[in-house]
Design brief:
alpha+beta, 5 strands, 7 helices, Glutaredoxin, 5-stranded mixed sheet, globular, 182 residues
Protein backbone atom coordinates (compact mmCIF):
# COMPACT_ATOMS: atom_id res chain seq x y z
CA UNK A 1 0.00 0.00 0.00
CA UNK A 2 1.52 3.31 -1.01
CA UNK A 3 1.07 6.31 1.20
CA UNK A 4 0.03 9.62 -0.24
CA UNK A 5 2.51 12.36 0.53
CA UNK A 6 -0.25 14.91 0.93
CA UNK A 7 -2.46 12.80 3.18
CA UNK A 8 -3.77 14.62 6.22
CA UNK A 9 -2.04 13.61 9.40
CA UNK A 10 -2.96 13.80 13.05
CA UNK A 11 -1.53 17.11 14.30
CA UNK A 12 -1.66 16.13 17.98
CA UNK A 13 -0.25 12.66 18.68
CA UNK A 14 -2.25 10.36 20.94
CA UNK A 15 -1.16 10.80 24.53
CA UNK A 16 -2.11 10.80 28.18
CA UNK A 17 -4.82 13.44 27.67
CA UNK A 18 -6.79 11.12 25.41
CA UNK A 19 -9.49 8.59 26.21
CA UNK A 20 -8.15 5.34 24.80
CA UNK A 21 -9.69 1.88 24.73
CA UNK A 22 -7.24 -0.93 24.06
CA UNK A 23 -3.55 -1.46 24.75
CA UNK A 24 -1.12 1.44 24.27
CA UNK A 25 1.24 -0.92 22.41
CA UNK A 26 -1.41 -2.07 19.91
CA UNK A 27 -0.09 -2.05 16.34
CA UNK A 28 -3.01 0.14 15.24
CA UNK A 29 -4.48 3.26 16.78
CA UNK A 30 -7.82 4.39 15.38
CA UNK A 31 -8.73 7.97 16.33
CA UNK A 32 -12.25 9.28 15.80
CA UNK A 33 -13.16 12.93 15.90
CA UNK A 34 -16.84 12.76 16.73
CA UNK A 35 -19.91 14.66 17.82
CA UNK A 36 -22.34 12.94 20.20
CA UNK A 37 -25.34 14.53 18.46
CA UNK A 38 -24.22 13.79 14.89
CA UNK A 39 -26.38 11.14 13.18
CA UNK A 40 -23.39 9.97 11.12
CA UNK A 41 -21.37 9.44 14.31
CA UNK A 42 -24.31 7.49 15.72
CA UNK A 43 -24.19 5.29 12.61
CA UNK A 44 -20.40 4.89 13.02
CA UNK A 45 -20.71 3.88 16.70
CA UNK A 46 -21.64 0.18 16.11
CA UNK A 47 -19.21 0.03 13.17
CA UNK A 48 -16.33 1.03 15.44
CA UNK A 49 -17.53 -1.53 18.02
CA UNK A 50 -17.44 -4.24 15.33
CA UNK A 51 -13.92 -3.24 14.24
CA UNK A 52 -12.83 -3.30 17.90
CA UNK A 53 -14.28 -6.79 18.29
CA UNK A 54 -12.54 -8.03 15.15
CA UNK A 55 -9.11 -6.69 16.04
CA UNK A 56 -9.21 -7.15 19.81
CA UNK A 57 -5.88 -6.29 21.43
CA UNK A 58 -4.37 -5.30 18.07
CA UNK A 59 -6.40 -2.06 18.18
CA UNK A 60 -6.37 1.00 20.41
CA UNK A 61 -9.39 3.27 19.85
CA UNK A 62 -9.29 6.95 20.80
CA UNK A 63 -12.29 9.29 20.78
CA UNK A 64 -11.81 13.04 20.53
CA UNK A 65 -14.60 15.59 20.80
CA UNK A 66 -15.51 17.59 17.73
CA UNK A 67 -18.90 19.12 18.55
CA UNK A 68 -20.48 20.84 15.56
CA UNK A 69 -22.39 23.32 17.70
CA UNK A 70 -23.95 25.25 14.84
CA UNK A 71 -25.71 22.08 13.69
CA UNK A 72 -26.13 20.25 16.98
CA UNK A 73 -27.23 22.39 19.93
CA UNK A 74 -26.65 19.65 22.53
CA UNK A 75 -23.25 18.49 21.25
CA UNK A 76 -21.12 20.77 23.43
CA UNK A 77 -22.80 19.77 26.70
CA UNK A 78 -22.79 16.11 25.68
CA UNK A 79 -19.02 16.33 25.11
CA UNK A 80 -18.56 18.10 28.45
CA UNK A 81 -20.61 15.47 30.29
CA UNK A 82 -18.53 12.71 28.68
CA UNK A 83 -15.42 14.47 30.00
CA UNK A 84 -17.04 14.83 33.43
CA UNK A 85 -17.73 11.09 33.40
CA UNK A 86 -14.12 10.53 32.35
CA UNK A 87 -12.95 12.44 35.42
CA UNK A 88 -14.81 9.80 37.44
CA UNK A 89 -13.31 6.94 35.43
CA UNK A 90 -16.39 6.27 33.29
CA UNK A 91 -15.76 8.02 29.97
CA UNK A 92 -16.47 4.96 27.84
CA UNK A 93 -19.69 4.14 29.67
CA UNK A 94 -20.95 7.68 29.07
CA UNK A 95 -19.65 7.63 25.47
CA UNK A 96 -21.75 4.55 24.79
CA UNK A 97 -24.81 5.89 26.61
CA UNK A 98 -24.75 9.17 24.68
CA UNK A 99 -24.69 7.40 21.32
CA UNK A 100 -27.30 4.86 22.38
CA UNK A 101 -29.61 7.63 23.63
CA UNK A 102 -28.71 10.28 21.08
CA UNK A 103 -32.37 11.24 20.76
CA UNK A 104 -32.33 12.63 24.35
CA UNK A 105 -29.35 14.91 25.02
CA UNK A 106 -30.88 17.79 26.98
CA UNK A 107 -29.07 18.69 30.22
CA UNK A 108 -31.66 16.85 32.34
CA UNK A 109 -31.03 13.71 30.30
CA UNK A 110 -27.28 14.05 30.72
CA UNK A 111 -27.60 14.26 34.51
CA UNK A 112 -29.98 11.28 34.44
CA UNK A 113 -27.35 9.27 32.56
CA UNK A 114 -24.73 10.24 35.14
CA UNK A 115 -27.04 8.94 37.86
CA UNK A 116 -27.78 5.74 35.92
CA UNK A 117 -24.06 5.10 35.52
CA UNK A 118 -23.43 5.48 39.25
CA UNK A 119 -21.54 8.74 38.93
CA UNK A 120 -21.64 11.58 41.43
CA UNK A 121 -24.47 13.31 39.54
CA UNK A 122 -24.34 16.45 41.69
CA UNK A 123 -20.67 16.85 40.78
CA UNK A 124 -21.43 16.26 37.09
CA UNK A 125 -24.23 18.86 37.24
CA UNK A 126 -21.86 21.41 38.85
CA UNK A 127 -19.14 20.69 36.29
CA UNK A 128 -21.63 21.04 33.45
CA UNK A 129 -23.00 24.32 34.86
CA UNK A 130 -19.52 25.80 35.29
CA UNK A 131 -18.18 24.37 32.01
CA UNK A 132 -15.30 22.66 33.82
CA UNK A 133 -14.40 20.66 30.70
CA UNK A 134 -15.08 23.31 28.05
CA UNK A 135 -11.33 23.90 27.54
CA UNK A 136 -10.66 20.14 27.12
CA UNK A 137 -13.42 19.89 24.52
CA UNK A 138 -12.07 23.00 22.76
CA UNK A 139 -8.54 21.52 22.78
CA UNK A 140 -9.87 18.33 21.14
CA UNK A 141 -11.76 20.42 18.59
CA UNK A 142 -8.76 22.59 17.75
CA UNK A 143 -6.49 19.55 17.39
CA UNK A 144 -9.04 18.30 14.86
CA UNK A 145 -9.01 21.58 12.97
CA UNK A 146 -5.19 21.47 12.84
CA UNK A 147 -5.48 17.90 11.53
CA UNK A 148 -7.80 18.92 8.69
CA UNK A 149 -11.05 17.69 10.27
CA UNK A 150 -14.06 19.53 8.89
CA UNK A 151 -16.87 17.09 9.58
CA UNK A 152 -17.82 14.13 11.73
CA UNK A 153 -16.98 11.40 12.03
CA UNK A 154 -13.39 11.73 10.82
CA UNK A 155 -11.04 8.81 11.41
CA UNK A 156 -7.26 8.56 11.56
CA UNK A 157 -5.47 5.23 11.33
CA UNK A 158 -1.98 5.31 12.86
CA UNK A 159 -1.98 9.07 12.50
CA UNK A 160 -3.10 9.27 8.87
CA UNK A 161 -6.59 10.40 7.92
CA UNK A 162 -8.80 7.63 6.57
CA UNK A 163 -10.54 9.23 3.60
CA UNK A 164 -12.23 6.07 2.34
CA UNK A 165 -15.66 4.77 3.33
CA UNK A 166 -16.09 3.96 7.00
CA UNK A 167 -18.70 1.23 6.67
CA UNK A 168 -17.67 -1.85 8.59
CA UNK A 169 -15.84 -3.69 5.79
CA UNK A 170 -13.80 -0.79 4.35
CA UNK A 171 -12.85 0.46 7.82
CA UNK A 172 -11.99 -3.03 9.09
CA UNK A 173 -9.90 -3.73 5.98
CA UNK A 174 -8.01 -0.45 6.37
CA UNK A 175 -7.35 -1.08 10.06
CA UNK A 176 -6.31 -4.71 9.45
CA UNK A 177 -4.02 -3.56 6.63
CA UNK A 178 -2.42 -1.05 9.01
CA UNK A 179 -1.94 -3.83 11.59
CA UNK A 180 -0.15 -6.00 9.02
CA UNK A 181 2.15 -3.15 8.00
CA UNK A 182 3.04 -1.94 11.49
Amino acid sequence: MSRQRDAAVLALPVGERDHAHGPANAPVTLVEYGDFECPHCRRAYPIVKEVQNRLGPRLRFVFRNFPLTELHPHAQHAAEVAEAAGAQGRFWDMHDRLFERQFALADDNLIEYATDLGLDAARVARELATHTYKAKVRDDFMSGVRSGVNGTPTFFINGERHDQAWDVEPLAVAVEDAARHS
